Amino acid sequence: MTALLTTTTPVAPPSPRRRGGGFLRSLLHNRKAMIGLIIFIVFTVLAVVPQLFTSVTEPNKLAFPPALPPSSEHWLGTTSLGQDIWAQLVYGTRQSLVIALVAGFFATVLSVLVGVSAAYLGGVADDVLSMIINVFLIIPTFPLIIILATYAGKGTLSVVIIVLIITGWSYGANQMRAQALSLRNRDFLESARVRGERRSYIIFREMLPTMTSLIVANFLGAALYSVLTAAGLQFLGLGDPNSISWGTMLYWAQNQQALQSGMPLWSLAPGCCVALLGVSFALLNYAFDEFSNPALRPVRRRRRAAA
Which of 212, 205, 206 lies closest to 185 in space, CA to CA? Predict the structure, then answer.
């Protein structure tokens, strides 16, 4: 008898996919994310190293002839007070970006703490925290901002940031509570309770990692809110008029009647920068919504090569 020997070729195990590779690939192929990220990087570079983009070291100093038109020496001209508009625009990026990131970060942290705690604890704690969230949601926001900024003492950056945090956390907290309520009775959380894990462990190690995309989206929304609201506060004169930011540039341009005096770039340049930074956060927010929600992802036709 002849024995038939069959040889099987070993199948190579699938190569492990690196964590974050799918997210990075989705980010690079998403036009909204790439446009928003490029705009944000440009403003970040301007904020970190402004001296690379202008030779003026003291943008508030009255060192030039007033109301000069745009030229090779003064790209956007000068103000009616003799200040270089381009230098103020570049140096003003730092404060505007700091307000957006710091206020957005702490508003998001407060939203996560209040919203997730209310949903997980339940009972009386949920009722009390939900009532606080609803109270802040129904209060008219901008009048409250003006009142807080006026009575807290205008003139400091910290006051503007604190006011933005107080008025900007409630909407995100409501979203966090709704998402945490849908996760509270999931099997992986029940197993953690059965194991005897602490509440802090369950919230921070089990629940929050599943809400990462929603947390990032809330941070971008809070940063967008902070950019626009801070510019509005400073435009109304509720910030420090001697500081360098886009909002204070708009305040002084309005105060000196820049549009009527033939200096439109004094008003248009900071207004466009505020709008561009807001567009950056909005596009990144839409992109993260698409990453987290498959129903929002655009349907693309995949071309298959002929065998």
Answer: 206
